[in-house]
Amino acid sequence: MEVYAILKIFWWVLLGVLLMGLAIMVGMDMGVGALMRFVGKTDGERREALNIVGPHWDGNQVWFILGGGAIFAAFPTLYATSFSVFYIVMILLLFSMIMRPVAFEYRSKVAAHTWRESWDWVFLISGALPMIIYGAAIGNILEGVGFHFGWDGQYYQTESFWGYLLNPFAILCGLTSLSLAIYQGGTMLMMRGTDPIYTRAKNYASLGGLAAVVLFLIGGVMVAGMTGYALTSGNPDMPANPVSGQTVELVKGAWMANYAAHPILWVVPLLALAGMILGVLALRAKKPILGWWLGAVAWIGTIGTVGVSMFPFMMPSSDNPAQSLTVWNATGSEYNLIWMTIFALIFTPIIISYTSWCFYVMRGKVKTPSAQDDHAY
Predict the structure, then answer these.
(1) Which of 41, 178, 191, 234 shows the greatest Cβ crowding within 10 Å of its Cβ?
(2) Beta bridge partners of 325
(3) Average pLDDT, the chain
(4) Residue 248 backbone dihedrals phi, psi, to 5 degrees
(5) Stretch 155-167: mean pLDDT
């Protein structure tokens, strides 16, 4: 295999790692936001929940930036097409994520009940909506997206917002994502919170984990019977040109072909289920740290399942399957990938080390702040 093809696969794997890091770290913060109104019955309890993720939420957004940056630089065709297809979705996502830091900064500026109650609703929406969108987008990609390219490379979209977002499978994927975020956020509240937040978070996180198990299994059955895409010809060393050079067929159950060809891949979805089930058991046994890591395993297995099921597809086209975006035809140039690999090998370990250090330094339980505590959210 040529160096160019190896680099393509490397960046496909690294993009998966970044999406997993985004789901685990950002999803955890979003889960806390979605749960805050339910685990906190008083203003002080809700402030405690906010202060649990307060030192980390903005730093965790690095994973969001890294994921978008990796798609932009390593898979420019995928970036341009996906951001166009999901334009309205991206606007909703950005709006909710813009409101979230505003809520952090302004919620406790005024002591009025209505003021703080309003910002609490912002936390709920800006926590739940991005995770639903995250999962729904993955579901849409599995089903195929309505786009194609003209002879001159011009992109054309043929599906409406309502057609590609609000369909049963995409909604199921969105709810799965939200369930895992609630689980991960609940474990974080258990790790650093005190009663009554601890007990309430344990109950909600357990429900989130169990819901994720059920939804993941239902989704698996739906994917097994879904009409997928099979690459019948395509060269790993081909240039980034989605309008020629490959042929694709629509085949029912095509997303299960990689598992049939390589049975070892069944480890990936089993890893997701094991993380979810064992994570719930760990929480019930009052071991939130173990539960948090098992939640991370669940996210890794879930996103990994999508990746290995679709490989080498990244965004199939339901309009013209031959123009589907794959690992082979949607990447940047070899020169670009070489330099990106060098920078990634340098900076990714630094980011992971710094993030780990921040969590280590700011470990321990967070107490309910007093009404006069101006240093807390």
Answers:
(1) 178
(2) 315
(3) 88
(4) -135, 140
(5) 70
Who wins on pLDDT, 320 or 173?
Answer: 173
Cα separation values, 6 from 70, 195, 341, 343, 348, Å: 17, 51, 11, 17, 19
Q: Is 229 exposed, middle or buried (0-12, 13-18, 19+ CB in 10 A)?
A: buried
**Number of Cβ within a 10 Å radius of residue 161:** 13
Indicate the DSSP class of residue 333: -
d(CA 271, CA 94): 31
Average pLDDT (247-265) is: 93
Provide the 3-class DSSP secondary structure of residue 230: strand
Tokens 């999508």 belong to residue = 306
Amino acid at 362: M
Q: Say which amino acid occupies 333.
A: S
- Least Cα distance to 342 among 56, 74, 19 occurs for 74
Total count of residues recorded for the chain: 377
Predicted TM-score of the model (pTM): 0.91
Q: Is the dihedral of CA 337, 340, 342, 344 positive or negative?
A: negative
Distance in angstroms (rounded) separating the CA atoms of residues 72 and 77: 8
Output DSSP code: residue 23: I
Residue-level pLDDT at 185: 95
In terms of Cβ atoms closer than 10 Å to its own Cβ (0-12, 13-18, 19+), residue 38 is middle
**Confidence band of 1 (pLDDT split at 50, 70, 90):** low
Tokens found for residue 310: 């679709």
Longest Cα–Cα distance of the chain, Å, equals 67
Q: Distance between CA 263 and CA 237 in Å, rounded?
A: 26
The pair of structure tokens assigned to 307 is 């990746």
- C-alpha 179/C-alpha 135 separation (Å) is 10
Cα 148 to Cα 48, 109, 110, 143, 282: the distances in Å are 49, 49, 51, 15, 47
CA-CA distance, 293 to 288, in Å (whole number)?
9
Q: Which residues pair with 252 in a beta bridge?
A: 227
> How does pLDDT run across 49-101, given as a tens digit for each residue?
888 887 887 777 778 788 888 888 889 888 888 888 888 888 888 888 888 88
Residue pair 201/190 in contact by the 8 Å Cβ criterion: yes
Q: Does the N-terminal peptide bond of residue 242 adopt cis geometry, omega within 30 degrees of 0? A: no
Q: Between these two residues, 31 and 162, which has the higher pLDDT value?
A: 31
